[in-house]
């Protein structure tokens, strides 16, 4: 009997593995097809100043609409795009598209204080990123000092010799650097001081139960305090409730994004928000 059970178990695991491999393959095919058909697009999530509630920034987020499945979550296809070597061209396309769309939303001027874009760790392996960014700024006419790159802790965690130099060159274009999902992975705190960084973005997982879990409350208030002491700006991501907002306000977090005030939306939605705020003609 136990042999039969073992056999079944093997069959179960192997079919689960097959399903995962099949899904992965199907998704890779969809990614490649979407790229050649030009079916990626960009959504923008507003960031607000905590004290004034003024809209101060936008985060550009890549979107993939699939005819059969509807929207495929970025959390599912971005890691695969990283694995199969497609993320660099996707990221650069997103940045250029976002620069274009945000500029035209403001009638040729940037209608907000900052546009943030996500950049995968792989971009820092070579040293082409600086040139790529410089030419995007040139092609679009987007002013570098309105752009911010969101990088992950894994990038600053590497003891890679040239990461400091790469970030410095990028900063020389006026572009600012934020650490995304801060606190989620290991980060060398001494690197935060050494590297030319501007902003820490507190990971959504700490914000989501900041009011229920004392540990998370401690982590969030400590990160905010540390950012103030290191002269970094600090952003809370994933603010969904008034009590989460009240918490970060009480602890003097600078800005936030989250479903409480605005979900990611197409540029048309941003145009309407900018008009409403009276920032564009
Ligand atoms: P991220 O950079 O940390 O982006 C924030 C994510 O949190 C977005 O998910 C956003 O929609 C979501 N979010 C914002 N506020 C809330 C909230 O109040 N509640 C909840 N539940 N979620 C909230 P999204 O767009 O699905 O992106 C997931 C991740 O995919 C991003 O996390 C980022 O790591 C990656 N990603 C997205 N676009 C790009 C891109 O153009 N390039 C690269 N390399 N990665 C990207
Ligand atoms: Mg981000
Ligand atoms: Mg984030
Ligand atoms: Mg996140």
Overview of the molecule:
The chain has 281 residues and is of the alpha/beta class. 49% of the residues lie in helices and 20% in strands. It is built from 11 helices and 9 strands. It has helices spanning 2-37, 74-83, 87-105, 129-140, 153-157, 163-171, 189-194, 204-208, 214-229, 242-250, 267-276; strands at residues 40-49, 55-66, 70-72, 114-118, 147-152, 176-182, 199-202, 233-237, 255-257. An 8-stranded mixed barrel has the order 1-2-4-5-6-7-8-9, surrounded by 4 helices. Strand 8, helix 10 and strand 9 (255-257) form a beta-alpha-beta unit. The longest helix has 36 residues, at 2-37. The mean pLDDT is 92. Ligand C2E binds next to strand 2, helix 2, helix 3 and strand 6.
Query: Could you tell me the mean pLDDT?
Result: 92
Characterize the main sheet: 8 strands, mixed, barrel
In one word, what is the shape?
globular
- Which runs of at least 5 residues are low in confidence (pLDDT < 50)? none
Strand order of the largest sheet: 1-2-4-5-6-7-8-9
Termini separation? 77 Å
* Helical stretch tally: 11
Summarize this structure as a short list of keywords or feature phrases.
281 residues, alpha/beta, eight-stranded mixed barrel, 11 helices, 49% helix, 20% strand, globular, binds ligand C2E, binds magnesium ion, EAL domain-containing protein
């Amino acid at each position: 009997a136990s042999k039969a059970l073992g056999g079944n178990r093997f069959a179960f695991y192997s079919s689960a593995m097959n399903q995962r491999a099949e899904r992965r393959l199907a998704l890779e095919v969809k990614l490649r097809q979407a790229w050649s058909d030009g079916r990626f697009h960009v959504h923008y999530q507003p960031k607000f100043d905590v004290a004034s509630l003024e809209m101060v920034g936008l985060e550009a987020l890549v979107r993939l609409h699939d005819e059969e499945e509807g929207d495929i979550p970025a959390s599912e296809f971005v890691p695969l795009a990283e694995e199969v070597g497609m993320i660099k061209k996707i990221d650069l396309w997103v940045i250029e598209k976002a620069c274009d769309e945000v500029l035209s939303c403001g009638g040729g001027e940037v209608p907000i204080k900052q546009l943030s874009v996500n950049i995968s760790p792989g971009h820092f392996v070579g040293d082409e990123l600086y040139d790529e960014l410089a030419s995007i700024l040139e092609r679009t006419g987007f002013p570098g000092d309105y752009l911010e790159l969101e990088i992950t802790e894994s990038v600053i965690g590497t003891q890679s010799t040239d990461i400091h130099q790469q970030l410095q060159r990028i900063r020389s274009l006026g572009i600012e650097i934020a650490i995304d999902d801060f606190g989620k992975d290991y980060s060398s705190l001494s690197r935060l001081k050494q590297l030319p960084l501007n902003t820490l973005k507190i990971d959504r997982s700490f914000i989501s139960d900041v009011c229920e879990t004392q540990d998370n409350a401690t982590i969030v208030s400590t990160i905010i305090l540390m950012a103030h002491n290191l002269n970094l700006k600090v952003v809370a991501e994933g603010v969904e409730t008034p009590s989460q907002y009240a918490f970060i306000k009480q602890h003097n977090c600078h800005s936030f994004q989250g479903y409480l005030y605005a979900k990611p939306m197409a540029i048309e939605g941003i145009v309407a928000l900018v008009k409403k705020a009276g920032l564009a003609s």
